[in-house]
C-alpha cells in the first residue's frame, strides 16, 4: 500500500494509545510499541516481533480468558481434582499422559473459544445469525473437548476407584 496506508502507528502512552489511556489490564507489555498488522512486511524488518513479546502476548491472552471466563475457572478446578486423584491413585505414566493431554485440550479449546467470542463481538456487536453460529460452534468445540476429557477420566480413574470398593 502506498504511503503507509493500512498501517497503524506505533502506540504510545497517552491519548494515542487507548489501552494505556484507559488503564486496560494486561497491556503494560514493553512490546506494545511493536504493532503487528496485515500490512507489516516480514521481509523488510518492519514486521519483526520479538519472541519474548510473543510469549508475553500469549500470557496476556490466557490471563484474559481466565479472568473473563467462568467456565475456564471451573475447568481448572476439575483439572486440579484430576491431578489430585492421579496422585492419590498412583496412576501410570501412560495414564498421566492421557490426563495431561485432556486437561490441555480442554483449556486450549476454552481459550480459543474466548478468542472467537471476542472477535465475534468486535465484528458484530448487534445480534446476527452468523455471529450466533460462530459463538455456538466455539462453545461446541469446548463441549466436545470436555466430553472427551470426561471419558478419559472415567477410563483412567474408574478401574482403580472400583478396586478400592
What class, by secondary structure content? mainly alpha
- What is the percentage of strand-forming residues? under 5%
How helix-rich are the residues, as a percent range? Answer: 55-70%
Number of helices: 5
Cα-atom radius of gyration: 21 Å
Mean pLDDT figure = 82
Distance between the termini: 70 Å
Shape: globular
Number of strands: 0
The sequence of SSEs as H and E is HHHHH
- Main beta-sheet strand count, sense and barrel state: none
Name the poorly predicted regions. Answer: 1-23
Quick overview:
It contains 5 helices and no strands.
Could you characterize the architecture of this molecule?
The protein contains five helices and no strands. By secondary structure, the protein is mainly alpha-helical. Mean pLDDT is 82; it is low at 1-23.
List the helices and strands and how they pair.
Elements: H1 18-22, H2 51-68, H3 70-89, H4 93-123, H5 129-164
Helix pairs in contact: 2-4, 3-4, 3-5, 4-5
Q: Which key phrases capture this entry?
A:
disordered N terminus; 165 residues; globular; mainly alpha
